[in-house]
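Trying the structure run again after the queue cleared.
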Amino acid sequence: MKCADPLTFGAPIRLTVNPKETVNSPPAFLSVLSPIKGHGSDICVAAGFFPQQKTMILTSEDGNTVNQETSNAVLSLSSKNYYYVGSSEKKIQECVMDGKTAKADKIDKPSGNPVEDNPKKTATLECHTNTTTPPSTNNDDPKTNSMTLLVIGLRILLAKCVAVNVMLSIKAFLF
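Done. Tokens:
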């Protein structure tokens, strides 16, 4: 049995936006990230580079290198630079892109000065939420939308029936 969304027509359209500038710039930020707990793949994050077509070289613990093309990098419309995440199943020791290098224990900042990662310092993030308003749900399921409209319609119909019955009861007692 085939399950299809009745409100989707045809294949999706992919829109690619390319800026007019052609200034070649290396990544402003390059970092190797490992999972904190459990098992998972390491990733290399490259941020703020241009143009989109570059090569990211990932070197694993055993010395094997993997070249990844950044042809599907994401464009930031505000900065007009690209962002890309390269991954490897093995532990990444080094990530190189456009002459910039990031090692597993160091981060290459925009100024070009590597900063050693200090595991004792952790950033504290606070999330302030407004508890008076319920969290909004973004449900794009057409069946849920139809059911919601049906329930609202039935509530309106019930309210009308009750109002008419109350008016007829008042009229019967007055005459």
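The longest helix spans residues 142-174. Worth checking whether this holds up in the mutant runs.
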